[in-house]
TrEMBL record, chains A, B:
<feature type="binding site">
    <location>
        <begin position="13"/>
        <end position="14"/>
    </location>
    <ligand>
        <name>NAD(+)</name>
    </ligand>
</feature>
<dbReference type="InterPro" id="IPR036291">
    <property type="entry name" value="NAD(P)-bd_dom_sf"/>
</dbReference>
<feature type="active site" description="Nucleophile">
    <location>
        <position position="146"/>
    </location>
</feature>
<dbReference type="GO" id="GO:0006096">
    <property type="term" value="P:glycolytic process"/>
</dbReference>
<feature type="domain" description="Glyceraldehyde 3-phosphate dehydrogenase NAD(P) binding">
    <location>
        <begin position="4"/>
        <end position="146"/>
    </location>
</feature>
<dbReference type="GO" id="GO:0047100">
    <property type="term" value="F:glyceraldehyde-3-phosphate dehydrogenase (NADP+) (phosphorylating) activity"/>
</dbReference>
<dbReference type="InterPro" id="IPR000846">
    <property type="entry name" value="DapB_N"/>
</dbReference>
<feature type="binding site">
    <location>
        <position position="116"/>
    </location>
    <ligand>
        <name>NAD(+)</name>
    </ligand>
</feature>
<comment type="similarity">
    <text>Belongs to the glyceraldehyde-3-phosphate dehydrogenase family.</text>
</comment>
<dbReference type="GO" id="GO:0004365">
    <property type="term" value="F:glyceraldehyde-3-phosphate dehydrogenase (NAD+) (phosphorylating) activity"/>
</dbReference>
<feature type="binding site">
    <location>
        <begin position="145"/>
        <end position="147"/>
    </location>
    <ligand>
        <name>D-glyceraldehyde 3-phosphate</name>
    </ligand>
</feature>
<dbReference type="InterPro" id="IPR020829">
    <property type="entry name" value="GlycerAld_3-P_DH_cat"/>
</dbReference>
<keyword id="KW-0324">Glycolysis</keyword>
<dbReference type="Pfam" id="PF02800">
    <property type="entry name" value="Gp_dh_C"/>
</dbReference>
<dbReference type="InterPro" id="IPR006436">
    <property type="entry name" value="Glyceraldehyde-3-P_DH_2_arc"/>
</dbReference>
<dbReference type="GO" id="GO:0009089">
    <property type="term" value="P:lysine biosynthetic process via diaminopimelate"/>
</dbReference>
<comment type="subunit">
    <text>Homotetramer.</text>
</comment>
Length: 348, 348
């Protein structure tokens, strides 16, 4: 069978990770990536043997630095089945209108967008544990943001197993990604927004509309991971051990024991991933602290950590196979993604 | 009427603030403070005209630096009605046994401890909005910690007005006080502890034993204030505006409007306090963000900020008057404390 030909528009935090993941998938071919800025990212791509494309009016800027481009974004789009848009939040809808939509209408292209875009950019918003099947009917997919992906993994697993009455979660966001040297706060806790609910609750509902969820969100001065305090009321009373078993049965959720391992902070999670020699120390799994899992009657409460740079990567890979109508999707796709990316093999 | 004679043991973050507050109270006399380390704090006290005492075996250390001490802790205790212990957490019980208890039993002294001590250090644990009357029967009082004080102010006001079914709060703690240059984390979110509940729920129950409360707590890299995400279920459905009016009617709770004022972070609260030329930029009020107040059916949820260095100061002042059996305590005491400290006059 021929491979799914994939292009990536944008080679930033998310795009470069999806590019590496696509390159590792046995059923996919990474045709190339689109970059608009001729910086060190070009050199990284070149060293990895990845073809770089750009937009027409940037070609000279790349050539001026001696950076070789394969062609324009139009040239790339002609050669791919699926474009993964990983441009900065809000740019996706610009590229959609200018480049993708005409090809999509002609049946020559399908598109994936990231969570920074508005929901109406795509046919569906997506998470592999929630609504994977819907991808088979879609020509475009929006993979929701890192925080929403983290919430959805836990929520959909628990909702499918036990039924959720309502979710009330507090999101403690990292201020900036490690590479960002301009963003803050440096020494403050900032309400983001100062009102409840934050947009995360709305974003969860773009994937599972019927859930009763509200969220509060603050930003804190750290770059490593988000932490969520997830309080929920289940439809039935469930034994704590049963919940731990259920959560642990998914490759994309890792339940860690802080007392046993000493891992009681995002810094220690990251140090473990570095010691395990994970690529870029990425942690695409949702990390749930076993010790924090609190149950009483129908109440369930726990603390979880989300690696903002990598958690959406497996969902993007699955979304590609859904749009490509791959045989055995979604179950086979999820298994293949997990197997190639080594999902779930985190200190256990 | 003669003034209440007060001594302070410990001249650190809390002790120095209580000392300044006592000195400002018309019905109190600050007899002196006890210090065990001859450092810049001595020079500050001297410049303010505050008498400094120490323990016997430290006298030479002070004299060696040319620092004049009035005498020993025993000398101070002979001259005061009330000792406020503000020594580092855990030391209070040492001083209690070694110095205070004998005088308390003789009826010559009463003692106040801080929240870093275990509850059994004193006859009662205390918050002015919760159990002020109990101070009249006590010979020693423990003023609970900053986070617990912040929680209790909101909880007792709301519980008295409407009745609380349960509280589920997430506490986002500052990592260190501004002066501390050794503590972290620097770039991490640390679970403190990794389990639910954290000790804060237990500490709230030392003051109001019958409340159903559980808490989760994390530490984040900031020095300014704690932030709490306080989710609760009330016994009845209450109108949001009514809740805002109720909270706003207390001097020790300030409801701020983030949209109107632009104050959406702890950094901006602190900058406002600096601009208002508050002593040390202290904010002894509990700050609740109006915009965050969320109600649905019996649910109530809001975000609040706690200035860890100063929030317990008014409670310590009230506790002194309770132990001194002052006429009109507690209402008159609370009014006098608030009036002298300018409580509630924060951007409104």
């Amino acid at each position: 069978m021929s491979k799914i030909r994939v292009g990536i528009n944008g080679y930033g935090t998310i795009g470069k990770r999806i590019a590496d993941a696509v390159a590792r998938m046995p059923d996919m071919e990474l045709v190339g990536v689109v970059k608009v800025t001729p910086d060190y990212g070009y050199l990284v791509a070149e060293q990895k043997g990845i073809s770089v494309y750009t937009v027409k009016d940037r070609i000279d800027k790349f050539r001026g630095k001696g950076f070789k481009v394969e062609g324009t974004i139009e040239d790339l789009l002609e050669q791919v089945d699926i474009i993964v848009d990983a441009t900065p939040g809000g740019y996706g809808s610009y590229y959609k209108e200018k480049y993708y939509d005409e090809l999509i209408i002609k049946g020559k292209l399908k598109a994936i967008y990231q969570g920074g875009e508005k929901p109406d950019v795509a046919d569906i918003s997506f998470n592999s544990y929630c609504n994977a099947e819907e991808a088979l009917e879609a020509n475009s997919i929006r993979v929701v943001s890192c925080n929403t992906t983290g919430l959805l993994r836990a929520i959909c697993v628990l909702n499918n197993a036990y039924g959720i009455e309502k979710v009330r979660a507090t999101i403690i966001r990292r201020a900036a990604d490690p590479k960002e040297d301009k963003r803050g706060p440096v020494n403050s806790i900032k309400l983001n927004p100062p009102k409840i609910p934050s947009h995360h609750a709305l974003d969860v509902k773009t994937v599972i509309p019927n859930i009763d969820i509200e969220t509060a969100a603050v930003i804190v001065p750290t770059t490593l991971m988000h932490v969520h305090s997830v309080y929920m009321v289940l439809k039935t009373r469930v034994d704590r051990d049963e919940i731990i078993d259920e959560l642990s049965s998914y490759n994309r959720i890792v339940v860690i024991d802080a007392e046993k391992t000493g891992i009681d902070s995002t810094a220690k999670i990251v140090e473990s991933a570095r010691d395990l020699l994970r690529p870029r120390y990425d942690i695409p799994e949702l990390i749930i602290w076993k010790d924090s899992i609190f149950t009483r009657e129908n109440e369930l409460w726990f603390l979880q950590a989300v690696h903002q740079e990598s958690i959406v990567v497996p969902e993007n890979i699955d979304a590609i196979r859904g749009l490509a109508r791959t045989d055995g999707y979604p179950d086979k796709s999820i298994r293949l993604t997990d197997s190639v990316l080594g999902m779930g093999k985190f200190l256990g």
